[in-house]
């Protein structure tokens, strides 16, 4: 049994102190390490850089600790119990690492609990202590799905059967608000940390619908005994990370809808879709995953071409599920889907990088995007969702609507959860269920960069897909920009736009157009009023110098998508549409 103790004893300094007791350390000198990345977030983050100090002792007295590389240490051989003590700096307000202040503590095990080499399969006991009363605003409750052994006024004790289990169960400590609900007899809890004004009844009802949908979708059995949503509510923030029986979330206060608004706001829809996405991952990432993720080394990258399957398919279903449980209307759902189409089509990177490549290069490209990202890469989330839809339609066409992508996911979950998916398995599953080869389809749209046949796919299910030829916003102009002291600062310049052709650069601040000062809010309006072919004089600052750039206006209108229900559908298409929208009986 390995015994960890965690003390949030320096909230003002954001320092956790940890102790680790190893009863029988390795004779050659115990090696320990800390992860370089956390599963579900594909970037080497070097968590060991936050270890401030480390010391060790045993019956022999003080034990020397030698650093072997950036995240490995070795203690000199000793007799008796080895006691390791170290401090971790924790001030990352994200779902990926650790955080400590006088108001709350949060940590993933991969950021604070060192791995004891040779003892990865040993059970672990974890004591989590309360912060000093002088530095905490209240007694903190502790939310986690780790098994609780006991609790006292000073600390709570938890159990993990092995190290992998230990680091897949995040912990929230705060004076939070929580509410419980049940899905198919399985207890669920939502924890909200931070100031908020939330319609709890509505949020509970919506989460119950979503969770029940996912349980039913994958065969009426949950892969966990309980489930926990951990949500940090901030002024501004958004994100989530999946775990075996929980998820860590960040949302803005405006994402949580109050009881005075009947229709779901766009912000609330975004949050509930995030909950839907991360909960889906309990089956479709945590249970079934790429084979390289079954026992990954957290010392180095684990490469796979399959993130389009696991994140792209999940992105397809996280909004479709909201329609199927009737949180969203068909029109609202199509509006959301149209935004995904627009995002994907607004970057020429989709014509340069396949989504198989996007998946493989996630470590160096998707997670480390620069200003040229829209011109160089494509998102395996967004285009993966579009590919999932097109694949869904092609499967329906091929089988005369007797097989759908739903069936593909269920088959994969049932038959591949133990072994994990290899790169070719998805194509083989589709072939098995449809009795048709989809090799040409995958070669064009997965491994190639051919444009997806969206118009035809939407038409098959009775949806009209149009691209607005009159759009004249900043994207059509060829830039993305943010407000900078009232003016527009260019953050991205898109390929083949008139802005790039004229020589506008990332970092340029637009001060005036045709010698008239223009504010950020009025720039779009000014462009919208101008005719294609007109030449405008842009006054900009670049490196603190004033410059003038002549821009001949032209607009890239191919990316602005609108989706709407077709009128006067025949009976067969109406049935198809209903089956797609609601997963109705075939």
Global outline:
globular
Q: Which CATH architecture of the largest domain is right?
A: Orthogonal Bundle
Overall number of domains: 4
Q: Report the end-to-end length measured between terminal Cα atoms.
A: 53 Å
Strand order of the largest sheet: 5-4-8-2-1-12-15-14
Number of helices, where a helix is a run of at least 4 consecutive DSSP H or I residues: 17
Mind telling me the CATH class of the largest domain? Answer: Mainly Alpha
The helicity comes to 25-40%
Strand content: 25-35%
The whole-angstrom Rg is 26 Å
Mean of the pLDDT scores? Answer: 96
Number of beta strands: 29
Unreliable spans: none
* Secondary structural class: alpha+beta
CATH topology of the largest domain: Neutral Protease, domain 2
CATH evolutionary superfamily of the largest domain:
Neutral Protease Domain 2
Largest sheet: 8 strands, mixed
Summed up:
With 586 residues, the protein is α+β, with helices and mostly antiparallel strands.
Give me the secondary-structure topology.
Layout: E1 2-10, E2 15-22, E3 31-33, E4 51-58, E5 61-63, E6 65-67, E7 72-75, E8 82-89, E9 98-100, E10 104-107, H1 109-112, E11 115-116, E12 124-129, E13 141-143, E14 147-151, E15 155-160, H2 163-166, E16 171-174, E17 177-183, E18 186-193, H3 200-217, E19 227-234, E20 239-242, E21 246-252, H4 266-280, H5 307-324, H6 330-345, H7 355-360, H8 373-376, H9 382-398, H10 405-416, H11 425-434, H12 439-445, H13 454-460, E22 463-467, H14 474-477, E23 479-484, E24 487-493, H15 498-502, E25 509-513, E26 516-517, H16 520-529, E27 535-542, E28 545-552, E29 561-565, H17 571-582
